[in-house]
Write a structure and sequence with these properties.
The complex is a heterodimer. Chain A is built from five helices and two strands. Chain A is mainly alpha-helical. In chain A, strands 1-2 form a two-stranded antiparallel ribbon. In chain A, helix 2 crosses helix 3. By secondary structure, chain B is α/β, with parallel strands linked by helices. Chain B folds into two domains: 213 residues, Rossmann fold, CATH 3.40.50.300; 64 residues. In chain B, a hairpin with a 2-residue loop joins strand 12 and strand 13. Classes of the chains: A mainly alpha, B alpha/beta. At the A-B interface, helix 2 and helix 3 of A face helix 6 and helix 8 of B.
């Protein structure tokens, strides 16, 4: 939750994705309370209505739920839901742009696959 | 906090003429309680005049201002809920200049029935403001601080700040936005803030009001406005195809490369099949695209 806001995306989308990232990285745990919209507004110096817009998107997707009078909480199973959703978008969000850039640089698919296989960064390994 | 009911401050057909100059040329505006509005416009667009008329510090040449249907002009009951903390100006023969800060705040305390003395004290300390100094001897930053203290401590339901950060350094400006958000989240008071420093204040505004040449050019939720503004760039031919039929501003061209700002209307989108770069725009860029044409 301590990332810095950028210009490239709508702020409420960034707030939404930050909360998702924190859930993926176990910074926010399932059934744990997330900061209130007022807390988020003050932390990022943004209008509370904008913070609420991001939080409400997560409520609509079932990632967060409201406990009346207490606040917003992370839904049980939210982490897996976010992972599944992002896996679905992985091709569009990452592979497409990777292939486009490789294409304009004249890197072939075979060369790209070789790069990935020889890479020591990231991934889950082959076992 | 629910101290007050939902209120509306409404301007209808406001015109203001100084001699032969039309400063406001027909303003219709509704301000709802519980929002932070940003008021932006070029120098001379009429922002300060509009704020002074909304707060009945200045008579309109035509039109009406009402607060929940009741006229604002010479109506003390209503004016108790409105504060316009003016930018202090040492250049004109303002009565305030001869006063000490202490005296100026004392007058504000008498003037605003919901004045929060504790808050004023706390802010004086926080800003490290010497209240024994005369207004005419204050630095630009200190003048801004006095304006901010009056606005926040007035506790008025509708509070207008005219260029509150103009004289402040960047650290003090960020502090001001934090104070404003603290007060807003605690009380839900309505703030209208005029500023030329659009970039850093944009995220604070729920709605933005753009004034241009004495008229309201646009009043819209800031995020929704930004969601429909895009900068398209790339090869001229591709850009032209992608922007065809859309509302465009600010075309720039360099060789075969072209950049253009588009404002999408509801239901419109930018076709995806063209090889162009799409970028989101800041409120400042949107403002320049709308009002930047030299006339």
């Amino acid at each position: 939750m301590n990332e810095i806001l950028t210009q490239e995306k709508s702020i409420y989308i960034q707030i939404k994705e930050m909360i998702e990232n924190d859930i993926l990285r176990n910074i926010l745990l399932e059934e744990e309370r997330v900061p209130s919209t007022n807390e988020l507004a003050k932390l990022f110096a943004i209008n509370p209505a904008t913070a609420a817009k991001g939080v409400n998107l997560l409520v609509d997707e079932g990632t967060l739920y409201k406990k009346r009078g207490i606040g917003m909480f992370v839904t049980e199973g939210a982490k897996k839901t976010i992972m599944d959703k992002r896996k679905k978008h992985f091709y569009d969000d990452y592979v497409k742009s990777l292939l486009a850039e490789a294409g304009s640089l004249g890197i072939t698919k075979d060369e790209l696959i070789k790069m990935i296989q020889e890479s020591k960064d990231g991934g889950m390994g082959n076992e | 906090m629910g101290v007050w009911e939902m209120s509306n401050l409404t301007a209808k057909g406001i015109r203001k003429t100084y001699g032969k100059k039309d400063v406001l040329r027909g303003i219709d505006l509704n301000l709802e309680s519980g929002k932070i509005y940003g008021l932006i416009g070029r120098n001379g667009a009429g922002k300060t005049t509009l704020l002074s008329i909304l707060s009945a510090q200045n008579p309109a040449s035509a039109g009406s201002i009402t607060f929940d249907g009741r006229p604002v002009w010479e109506n003390q009951d209503v004016l108790n809920h409105i504060c316009f903390s003016r930018e202090l100006n040492q250049m004109n023969g303002n009565n305030a200049n001869a006063m000490k800060v202490k005296e100026y705040l004392r007058i504000a305390e008498i003037f605003f029935p919901y004045w929060d003395k504790e808050m004023a004290k706390r802010l004086i300390k926080e800003f490290d403001l010497d209240i024994k100094k005369k207004i005419s001897k204050l630095s630009k930053g200190m003048l801004s601080m006095v304006t901010i203290i009056v606005a926040l401590a007035s506790k008025a339901e509708f509070t207008f700040l005219d260029e509150p950060v103009a004289g402040l350094d960047v650290v003090a400006r960020e502090r001001f936005y934090a104070l404003l958000l603290d007060e807003f989240t605690e009380t839900g008071r309505t703030f209208v803030i005029s500023t030329h420093i659009i970039e850093e204040a944009a995220d604070i505004f729920e709605d933005v009001i753009i004034v241009d040449k004495g008229k309201i050019l646009l009043k819209e939720n800031t995020q929704e406005l930004l969601d429909r503004c895009w900068h398209i760039s790339g090869h001229e031919e591709e850009v032209d195809k992608a922007a065809e039929g859309l509302e465009t501003y600010n075309k720039e061209r360099m060789g075969r490369s072209k950049g253009v700002t588009v404002f999408l209307k509801p239901g419109q989108s930018i076709p995806k099949q063209y090889d162009v770069e799409l970028q989101k725009m800041s409120l400042q860029k949107v403002f320049v695209a709308l009002c930047g044409e030299e006339s």
